[in-house]
Design the sequence.
């Protein structure tokens, strides 16, 4: 009888600790998939140069930040109007982003704030750039609003070439 109680207690403790964590992981996975779907919608809209569709996915705030190559150097564009004006100017030239979706990561800083990380190839002729695809890592911050998830910050980080072997 003692052995049966011990087995039951062991199973109960196991279930108590394991299944609650499994229950937490399932919604997180759903949230990750939701963020990844929205990221893909944003990239598809950018590649189509569809400013209204892009604007609908960007946080309508003066704190929105988009870091990008400017006609002279790199620049932070602040606020949705400044960001959209910059995108409008960029879209006058060839512009394309090709993400490596298999390497995309999404993490949640809080239930309402997420960060995505994804390697991409960006082809752009804006600001005197050569129209050759270049590797970047895109880091985006997302905020959950009453209208859904919106991109708050977009920081593309250029990936330098590997040093030549000696």
Sequence:
């Amino acid at each position: 009888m003692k052995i049966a109680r011990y087995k039951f207690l062991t199973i109960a403790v196991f279930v108590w600790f394991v299944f609650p964590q499994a229950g937490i992981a399932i919604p997180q996975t759903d949230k990750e998939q939701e963020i990844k779907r929205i990221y893909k919608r944003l990239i598809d809209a950018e590649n189509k140069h569809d400013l209204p569709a892009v604007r609908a996915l960007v946080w309508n705030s003066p704190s929105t930040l988009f870091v990008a190559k400017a006609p002279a150097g790199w620049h932070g564009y602040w606020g949705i109007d400044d960001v959209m004006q910059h995108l409008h100017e960029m879209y006058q030239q060839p512009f394309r982003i090709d993400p490596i979706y298999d390497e995309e990561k999404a993490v949640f800083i809080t239930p309402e704030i997420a960060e995505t990380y994804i390697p991409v190839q960006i082809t752009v002729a804006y600001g005197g750039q050569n129209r050759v695809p270049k590797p970047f890592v895109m880091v985006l911050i997302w905020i959950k609003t009453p209208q859904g998830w919106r991109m708050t910050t977009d920081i593309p980080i250029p990936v330098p070439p590997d040093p030549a072997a000696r």
